[in-house]
Amino acid sequence: MGKTAIFTTSLCLFFAACGKKQNTQNTQPLNITFAQPASVWEETLPLGNGRLGAMPDGGISKETLVLNEETMWSGSEWDPSNPDALKYLPEIRQKLLNGENIEAQQLMQQHFVCTGRGGENPRYGCYQTLGRFEIDFAEMFPDTSFSDYKRSLSLNSATATTSFTFDYEGHKATFKREYFTSLTDNVIVVRLTTENAPLKFSFGFSRAERAEVSGNDDVATMQGVLDSGDPTTAGVAFYARAEVTQRTGNEAVILISAATDYQQIIDGKPHGDIAQMSELVESTITSARKRSYEELKQQHTDEYRKYFDRVAVEVGRTGENGDIQPVDSAALYMQFGRYLFICSSYKATLPPNLQGLWADRIHTAWNGDYHMNINVQMNHWPMEAGNLSDLSEPITRYVEGIVPSGEQTARNFYGTGGWTGHVLANAWHFTAPAENSTWGSSFTGGAWLALQLWEHYLFTNDTEYLRRIYPILKGAAEFLRANLAETADGQLVTCPSNSPENAFLFDGKRCCVCAGPVMDTQICMEIFAAVEQAAGILNTDTDYATALAAAAAKLPPMKISPKGYLQEWLEDYDEIEPHHRHVSHLFGLFPGTTINTPELREAARQTLVRRSDEGTGWSMAWKICFWARLGDGNHAYRLFKNLLKPVVSANNNGDGISYSGAGAGTYPNLFCSHPPFQIDGNFGGSAGLMEMLLQSHEVTADGTRIIRVLPAIPDEWQSGHFRGLKARGGITVACSWTDGIITDLQIDNPLNTKIEVQSGHFSLE
User: Fold this and answer.
1) What is the C-alpha R_g of the chain?
2) Residue 326 confidence (pLDDT)
3) Does residue 10 sit in the same domain as residue 49?
4) Nearest CA to 559 among 522, 600, 520?
5) Is residue 402 part of a domain?
6) In this structure, are 711 and 730 located in the same domain?
7) Would you call 618 helix, strand, or coil by DSSP?
8) Which distant-in-sequence residues (6+ apart) come within 8 Å of 279 by Cβ?
9) Domain total of the chain
10) pLDDT of amino acid 141
11) Residue 4: pLDDT band by 50, 70, 90 thresholds?
12) Do 165 and 289 belong together in one domain?
């Protein structure tokens, strides 16, 4: 392991003597390309501008764009508090402390779940597709034969194209379609062009339910109101409009936009009516149509590239001419994660959900919501390291928005101050324990979300932002400290809780509810330390910080099983599923920092070996991050290849091929298969690849930030370069290496963070 001196200068350049600096610009095209139209949604190409999403299928006689609007949420706000919960809490806690877990679990299921069936309640709601926009070319194509077909998404420009050749009246003609979702004009733009054939088409909206559609040759509209789940309250109203804004014999431009009244509902204002939304959408399109197609595209591309072009990466083997020959899709996959994050977060109202921005049905899997036991956090793992910190506003506002509900949950279920969130969360501020205590009672989700905001501060050193989120951090810590129960030996444990979605054998029976699952202890350690550090930076709450430190000192230490792995629970229970998809007790390895000794790191490694490399898509992505933190690039790379495994469909329901029965891996359009599609695997996998190239989570006793360069590169990545990846402390890093040797390294440290730069990985010795 190589090591440099400590640097605090704003720009340092070293390791440059081994050769000339490599070109680290984003010169390689990053495309996802098909040679045929999409036969299923998982083959369509995702476009988005944070608010609107579109997935064109590139059909021949009919083009279908599946449309999304980020606030298309059914349901409504409601109070799921259970009046029995607080009354039974002392008895539940005592039973757990007495080792009567089965009895405690039964009591929790009877008395300590939310009312109204939680996520199954219509008022909980779900994220829904906006609908479909169909362009019919049947008049142009009496014969649907075609050749030279190409359908492609460019990550470099956030545009998609479809082109092909067809026979028209005895001669060859070409058809090209271009699509993008404008970041600057809030419209979906479609341009249709033909050569040697006239352009003929009709179009319109469709939706499976709750929509009225109308239209003519140049305009189509769709409007409706979603189900609120409450007969006394109207749901979210929506309006969409499409207009042909330019039309000639062989060219047309179509602009599409949409809006809902979700934000008005959240703000407590009267529901918007269709006329208001129609006026807003028409105004948006009117403004956009003042510009030519070329102007719309240029402005969109320029704005998008301000974000995407911050990072470049290429990895592979050294070619004969000293160039890099890619051996895999790692660079593409990492950048695809950044692309999806830009497309689902740019000026968004809500953060990306389980589907990001993209959904193709009325009722999305798992309601398309925000699971706080890893999934919504994983959605934001590539944000900071991927140089997209300035897209943090949606997740920050979302957490601010759920705090009042979390305070109510803390009072009504636990009788304490502070705020909390459990597993389920949605667009309507749901924070209560879910309908099933075996998986829904984990109450550290809110604190984990707060730690995600703390990460933003660590990467940016933005003191004003820290001042803004400090009450969130403090409230999360206050709740956890108030809900620590003292064991017979004087230790403090969370109680009641569970290790997310995993079960153990207790007296021969399946059990989940427990006291002090290891992940909870690690999160307590992290949030207490974050608040203590933040209080010091802001020069406030000295006594409170001292009290948190005292509580942290009484948390139970992590235990290593006699079998060598890190225990998931206070007792070394046997898991029901040794290969369970969640590896929650390694939170302290990633994204946390509490697994930080050689003994604990080795126990974490043994845990991962025991868990195996199998899992759902997002689980494999998390394991990439784990192995990267352990410095084992070859194992991390093995998980990446597993994550890339194409899913194979075995279903045909009479409606064409379906991927609903496929396994974990990656769909043809690079969406991650849980299964089904769940976007956290894309974001987690992208973050894991960044973690293989650069790490910055360690701090020495004197506050020096360790910047670890190439900590976990696999043997296949003999040579490569990256530019623009971020490290904590406001630092930007660029690096080139050839045959495993760093040839150029640049550290941009404008905040003069005290750093120590190291190359190579940890030793487990």
Assistant:
1) 27
2) 86
3) no
4) 600
5) no
6) yes
7) helix
8) none
9) 2
10) 81
11) very low
12) yes
- Quick: pLDDT tens for 520-554: 999 999 999 999 999 999 999 999 999 999 999 99
Q: What is the CATH number of the domain that holds 225?
A: 2.70.98.50
Is cis: bond before 591, omega within 30 of 0? yes
Interval 727-741: pLDDT, tens = 999 999 999 999 989
Within-domain flag for 518: no
Write out pLDDT tens, residues 629-667: 999 999 999 999 999 998 876 554 444 556 666 789 999
**Residue finishing a domain among 307, 340, 364:** 307
- How far, rounded to the nearest angstrom, does the alpha carbon of residue 562 sit from its chain's CA centroid? 36
Look at residue 53 and tell me if it is in a domain: yes
The burial of 142, by beta-carbon neighbours within 10 Å (0-12 exposed, 13-18 middle, 19 or more buried), is given as exposed
How confident is the model over 403-450, as pLDDT tens digits?
Answer: 999 999 999 999 999 999 999 999 999 999 999 999 999 999 999 999
Q: Would residue 529 count as lying in a domain?
A: no
Q: How far apart are CA 554 and CA 571, in angstroms?
A: 17
Distances (CA, A) of 387 to 81, 307, 312, 339, 728: 40, 8, 11, 12, 11
Number of H-type helices and E-type strands within the chain? 18, 32
pLDDT of residue 269: 84
User: Do residue 12 and residue 65 come from a single domain?
Assistant: no
CB 432 within 8 A of CB 422: yes
- Give yes or no: residues 199 and 254 share one domain: yes
Output the pLDDT for position 654: 47
Give strand pairing partners of 575.
Answer: 504
Tokens of 504: 């153990």
* 16: containing domain: 2-26+318-325+704-759
Whole-angstrom distance, CA of residue 348 vs CA of residue 391: 9
Sign of the torsion angle spanned by Cα atoms 613, 313, 337, 729: positive
pLDDT reading at 329 higher than 60: yes
In sequence order, what are the residues at sequence separation of 6 or more whose Cβ sits closer than 8 angstroms to the Cβ of residue 422?
372, 409, 431, 432, 433, 434, 440, 441, 442, 443, 445, 446
pTM summary value: 0.95
* pLDDT above 90 (res 272): no
* Residues in CB range of 382: below 8 A, 6 or more apart: 334, 337, 338, 341, 388, 683, 686, 687, 690
Structure tokens at 289: 């149509």
Q: Are 54 and 200 contained in the same domain?
A: yes
In 39-175, alpha helices (H) = 85-97, 101-111
